[in-house]
4-hydroxy-3-methylbut-2-en-1-yl diphosphate synthase (flavodoxin) (Streptomyces ossamyceticus), 371 residues
Amino acid sequence: GLPEVPVRPVAERRESRRIQVGSVAVGGGAPVSVQSMTTTRTSDIGATLQQIAELTASGCQIVRVACPTQDDADALATIARKSQIPVIADIHFQPKYVFAAIEAGCAAVRVNPGNIKQFDDKVKEIARAAKDHGTPIRIGVNAGSLDRRLFQKYGRATPEALVESALWEASLFEEHDFRDLKISVKHNDPVVMIEAYRQLAARCDYPLHLGVTEAGPAFQGTIKSAVAFGALLSEGIGDTIRVSLSAPPAEEVKVGIQILESLNLRARRLEIVSCPSCGRAQVDVYRLADEVTAGLEGMEVPLRVAVMGCVVNGPGEAREADLGVASGNGKGQIFVKGEVIKTVPESKIVETLIEEAMKIAEQMEQDGVAS
Ligand code: SF4
C-alpha cells in the first residue's frame, strides 16, 4: 500500500474531484501518485511488461504506454491484464484506438478530444464508452501541440493559451455529461508551466497531472521538475506527477518519489543528511556518504542518517538524526538517538553505520513504523 502521509504536509491540498485510475485514486485528497511512461514498443508485450515490472519495483504507481499503431492497440489487453499497476493508454488522433484501449481494460486513456473532433468526430461515442466502462480520461495539453487557433490568438503557448485549450477540451466531454477527467498543461519552461497550472487550478476542480514536458536530460530535467512541482505542490496544486527525463523511466520515478518525500507529501524513507564537506573536514565525506547510501539502498523505514565531516556541526546533526557519524581526527563518533555509542577508526565508519542502521530498522519494523 501507499506510505501513510506524515503529520506535516507542505500545504493544504487544493480540493479536487476524485477519479479512480484502476486501483489508484487521483484527486479528492488521495495521496499524490507517481507515474511514468514506458519506452518500449507497446506491441512488444514481453519487453513492455518487463519494463513495467521494473517501474513497479522502483515505486511507480501508474504507467502510461503509447499506442500509435494497431499492433500496439492489440497488445493493450494483455498488458493491462498482466501489469501490476494501472495502465493508461496514450492516444493521439485515432478514435479506434481509444475504443480499443477502453475495451482492453486500460485503467485510463490519455486523449485530447480536440484532435479527435478535428479528424473524426467520435467524442460523443468515446464519452459513452468511457462512461460505460468507468474509464477516466486525461486531457493532456502540451505546448508543443497546442491548437493552431490558440497559437494564433495568443502568439505562443502562454499560460492563458494552455488553460483555454484545456478547458475547451474538457468542455467537449462535458457537453456529453462526462466529467471523469484529469488534466495536464505541460510546457518545457517551469515558469510558464507553474502559471498555467495555477490558473487552471483556480478555474476547475478536476484533478491535475503535473508535468514539465521535454524537461531534458537527467540533471536538468530533475531540477526543472523539482522546481516546478515544488512550487505547485507547496501551494496544494497537483494530484499525480510525472517527471519527464531523457533517461530510463525508473529514474523518473526515483525523482518523483524524492520530490514528494521532500515536501512531506509522502512518508520519507531513508534520508542521508550529509554535509558538503569543507576545509575542516577530517574524513572523505563524499565517499562516506556514497558508501552509506549504497549500503542502505532499498531500506523502507524512515531512517535519517547523518554523515558529517567534522565536529563543528557534526554532533548536532548526528544527534538530530536516528543515527549518525561525526568525524574527527581519523575517527568517527557514532551516534544513535543522540547518544555516542562508540568511536571507531575511519575504516570502520561505514560498516558500523550500516550495522547500527540495520538494528534500528529491525526495531522500527517490529514497532510497525515501516511503510
Ligand atoms: Fe565542514 Fe564540518 Fe560542516 Fe562538514 S560538518 S561542512 S566538514 S564544518
